Amino acid sequence: MKKLFIPTLLAGLMASTCVFAALPAAIKEKGEISAAIVPNYPPMDFKDTTTNKLTGLDFDLGNALAERLGVKIKWQETGFEQMLSGLTTKRVDIVLSGMSDTAERQKAVTFIDYFTSGPQLYTLAKREDLQALTDLCGKKVGTSRRTTWPSEIAAWSKENCEAAGKPAIVVIGTEGSADARAQLQQNRLDAAMQGSETIPYLMALDKGKYKPVGLAISKQFTGLGIEKSNTELVTAISEALQGMVDDGTYGKILKKWDLEQGAVEKISINAGQ
Questions:
Q1: Count of alpha carbons within 13 angstroms of residue 196, beta-carbon side
Q2: Are 101 and 29 in a shared domain?
Q3: pLDDT digit string (tens) for 212-261?
């Protein structure tokens, strides 16, 4: 056991030393990396209801990443609209909060993609009339207006509802996923959309209350955001995350949150469309 353990430990220490050396000087001097997070998207990012402390996949991943980099991590709770501006104005070093990597966002931010999912529709379990995605043609569907999902629903509706002579889906922009869920419960919506990674969590949290409608309508990459000019940090974090994938640290964190279906084998840069 010792013969196997010691080389593995030394390899881990050497890897951590290498990625620390690759960090920008400002972060090495502080010994700290700051991360923006919006804790309202379980199981990716949320607050434990009993302790009111941050938790979730991104929180665990960020803490493990900081340890790998040899620095501390300072979490900064913020609003969704402030996340990207926080990077460009250098108030934070990274955004790690379940953010989808899109071509539009890539104009200002470099994304290190570490997870895959897709926008998926769900409704109340009692809605026996809603079984297939096309059952939503002509129905009211809500989703966060801050995401790309309203336009994706509209595009899907045009191709699958209107093209077949059925009424278009009525897309309702909401303040966020929680607002859409509340409106669904109040019967103001027929269905809502969230990332496919969150649907099983919702169904487990409120057993018998929700059900998915069809599969995700597209595939998306979730990325850790870094200001475009900060190439040193992009390199250091990419290498650290790939090391976590290779040695199983990443997989253990995903398994803890029952999110193995979104795992990637290789960390990529700006793979979103």
A1: 21
A2: yes
A3: 999 999 999 999 999 999 999 999 999 999 999 999 999 999 999 999 98
Residues 59 and 160 both lie in one domain: no
Q: Report d(CA 45, CA 25) in Å as an integer.
A: 29
Based on the fold, state whether residues 71 and 147 are members of the same structural domain: no
Shared domain for 41 and 111, answered yes or no, is yes
Task: Choose among 211, 251, 233, 48: nearest CA to 120.
Answer: 211
Eight-state DSSP code of residue 53: -
Segments forming the whole domain that contains residue 57: 2-117+220-269
Number of H helices, E strands in the chain: 9, 13
> What pLDDT is stored for residue 18 in this prediction?
57
Residues 109 and 16 in one domain: yes
| pLDDT on residue 17 | 53
Q: Are 73 and 35 in contact (CB under 8 A)?
A: yes
User: Which residues of the chain are under the pLDDT cut of 50?
Assistant: 1-14
What are the start-end ranges of the E strands in 78-169? 94-95, 109-117, 119-124, 140-144
189 with 225, same domain: the answer is no
E strands along the chain, which residues? 32-37, 46-47, 54-55, 72-77, 94-95, 109-117, 119-124, 140-144, 170-174, 191-195, 210-213, 220-227, 268-269
Number of independent structural domains in the chain: 2
Whole-angstrom distance, CA of residue 84 vs CA of residue 99: 10
- What residue has token string 């071509």? 103
Looking at 185, 213, 241, which one is the last position of a domain? Answer: 213
Asked whether residue 252 falls in the same domain as residue 188, the answer is: no
- 124 touches 184 (CB < 8 A): yes
38 to 170, 221, 255: CA distances (angstroms):
28, 18, 22
